[in-house]
Design goal:
This protein has 305 residues and is of the alpha/beta class. The protein contains 10 helices and 14 strands. The strands form 4 sheets. The protein has a 4-stranded parallel β-sheet, sandwiched between helices. Strands 3-2-7-8 form a 4-stranded mixed β-sheet. It has a 4-stranded mixed β-sheet with strand order 11-12-13-14, sandwiched between helices.
Length: 305
């Protein structure tokens, strides 16, 4: 007799403590924008998978976060914040060293951001950190591309157990294609499919990736929404017009919305619409985790129930 999964989603990947500075314009090496006064600032927890899992929890999913934190104040802050968000942190590892942190510069006119980040190598995830028993007790696994060796191993373990795997892919390395092929639903940041295929057009890029990857292929396009290839069907889902305050974490919130749609069995067009709405709302607030909307807010903007 099969057992009921303990978690809806297990997320394996990065966390961070972000120091967010809002400035009148992006800094430049010379001229009027070489010295800028900070108009607003905030310290907020973030990181790709940690933010996505916090959003999953806020959307009502049972979520377990798997990652490593430093034994410093930032590491303790991340653990406390994830616990407050309702995440299971039983698999959170604490290691000597500095937790990942970031300085995020926000252009107050557009809400676009630049990220400067760092972490000790000691808090990287290792292959032996993959919690196979926890993955086996989940309905879905989500991975990012920060510690790619571990993400690939975890994805393969999950797929061998028949568990679907979603991803957060936003940088090009020599293992990006391998990680994309290891997951069942590859969700790319804009520009990455072009780097992988040489095709600038989104549909052509995804159809070329389809030659190797049989599953869902999705590209997030920021304010322009998202595109996806489901089987042979190409979909465009427009974004929602909002006044952007901070785009940090919006891609992570999109992925949480997508995970919710997958687990609820929604049609792909509805899933994309909800994910775009959730991501748009997150842009109207400062900070990654602090910007996550509620389920009701996202449903209302998406026009779905």
């Amino acid at each position: 007799m099969s057992l009921e999964p303990r978690w809806d989603v297990v997320g394996l990947g990065a966390n961070s403590v972000d120091v967010v500075h809002v400035v009148p314009a992006f800094p430049e090496p010379q001229g009027w924008h070489s010295k800028l006064r900070v108009s607003r600032h905030l310290v907020s927890c973030g990181g790709q998978t940690a933010t996505a899992m916090a959003a999953c929890a806020r959307f009502g999913l049972r979520a377990l976060y798997v990652g490593a934190v430093g034994d410093d104040e930032n590491g303790r802050r991340v653990k406390a914040e994830l616990s407050r968000e309702g995440l299971d942190v039983a698999s959170l590892l604490s290691r000597p060293g500095r937790n990942q942190s970031a300085v995020i510069i926000i252009d107050e006119k557009s809400g676009e951001r630049a990220v400067l980040w760092d972490r000790d190598e000691s808090v990287c995830l290792r292959a032996h950190d993959v919690p196979v028993e926890a993955i086996a007790a989940a309905r879905l696994l989500h991975v990012d591309d920060v510690d790619q060796d571990v993400a690939i191993e975890a994805a393969r373990q999950a797929r061998s157990l028949g568990i679907p795997v979603t991803s957060d892919l936003d940088r090009m390395t020599d293992r990006t294609e391998e990680l994309a092929l290891a997951v069942s639903c590859a969700i790319f940041a804009d520009g990455l499919p072009e780097q992988l295929t040489g095709e600038r057009d989104h549909e052509r890029a995804l159809r070329r990736l389809r030659r190797k990857h049989p599953g869902l292929l999705v590209v997030t396009l920021g304010r322009d929404g998202a595109v996806a290839l489901e089987g042979d069907r190409f979909l465009r889902a427009p974004g929602f017009a909002v006044k952007a305050v901070d785009t940090t974490g919006s891609g992570d919130v999109f992925r949480a919305g997508f995970i919710l749609g997958l687990l609820n069995g929604w049609a792909l067009d509805r899933t994309l619409q909800f994910s775009n709405a959730a991501a748009a709302l997150s842009c109207t607030r400062l900070g990654a985790m602090t910007g996550i909307p509620t389920l009701d807010e996202a449903l209302a903007l998406a026009g779905t129930t």
